[in-house]
């Protein structure tokens, strides 16, 4: 069973990710944006994802560190969705196996 605090954190992070993705387009829909501005808008959700992953860098749990390494390897070779699935799946499986 998932802890209610964890579930709330996941839902809120998903909402923030969605809002950062669509918010810029809604607020600036009638303006013409240059390539740099478009790059910033497209990178914002990735920044939110990094803030979720970053605490694993200071973890002392072997399962988290292995899952982090697998996620980094996946990120260099696969699209974002596949990387997220591999990261979450490997963290869950390794935490179950090492617990």
Which tags fit this structure?
4 helices; mainly alpha; 99 residues
Describe the structure.
By secondary structure, the chain is mostly helical. Helices cover 79% and strands 0% of the residues. Helix 1 runs antiparallel to helix 2 and helix 3 packs antiparallel against helix 4. The protein is elongated, with a radius of gyration of 16 Å.
List low-confidence stretches: none
Number of strands: 0
The amount of helix comes to over 70%
Helix-and-strand structural type: mainly alpha
Return Rg in Å.
Answer: 16 Å
Q: Major beta sheet, specifics? A: none
- What is the overall number of helices? 4
Q: Shape, please? A: elongated
Mean pLDDT value: 83
In terms of DSSP E residues, the strand content is under 5%
Helix/strand order, N-terminal first: HHHH
Distance between the termini: 15 Å
What topology does this entry show?
Blueprint: H1 4-27, H2 35-53, H3 62-77, H4 80-98
């Amino acid at each position: 069973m998932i802890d209610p605090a964890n579930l709330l954190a996941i839902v809120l992070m998903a909402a923030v990710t969605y809002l950062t993705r669509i918010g810029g387009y809604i607020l600036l829909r009638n303006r013409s944006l240059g390539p740099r501005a478009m790059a910033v808008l497209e990178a914002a959700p990735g920044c939110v994802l990094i803030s979720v992953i970053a605490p694993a860098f200071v973890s002392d749990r072997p399962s988290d560190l292995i899952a982090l390494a697998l996620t980094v390897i996946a990120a260099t070779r696969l699209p974002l969705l596949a990387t997220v699935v591999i990261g979450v799946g490997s963290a869950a499986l390794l935490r179950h196996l090492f617990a």
